[in-house]
Amino acid sequence: MSAPRLQTADDGGLSVEWDDQRSVFSAALLRARCRCAFCRSAGLKGLLSAVPADIAVVGLATMGYGVQLQFSDGHQRGIYPWAYLRELALSG
Fold it and tell me: What is d(CA 2, CA 17) in angstroms, rounded to the nearest whole number?
């Protein structure tokens, strides 16, 4: 599988063009599903705060096996592996 083509969506989310389909993710979903060490630790401690309604993806950088996203709230620690994004796309 080749690396997907990415772009920020008009609504602030992320559009991913896979070889066989297109997936569009809301920024709120991606921010809430961040798996970086900071977010995992906060989640285990019950300290995660609500995702702002107006959250947006404001930057992205491909990392070979995935993409690092930067959000409008300043968070940019998480790398979303292609397999994880594909899993999110299939889970609806």
Answer: 11
pLDDT value, residue 92: 65
Q: Could you tell me if 73 and 31 are in contact, meaning their C-beta atoms sit under 8 angstroms apart?
A: yes
Using CA atoms, how far apart are residues 38 and 29, in angstroms rounded to an integer?
17
Residue 69's CB is within 10 A of a number of other CB atoms, namely 24
pTM over 0.85: yes
CATH of 5-90, one of 3.30.70.2190, 3.30.2020.30, 3.20.20.140, 3.40.50.1820: 3.30.2020.30
Measured CA distances, 14 to 26, 44, 74 (Å) = 7, 27, 16
Query: What confidence category does residue 3 fall into, taking pLDDT thresholds of 50, 70 and 90?
Result: confident
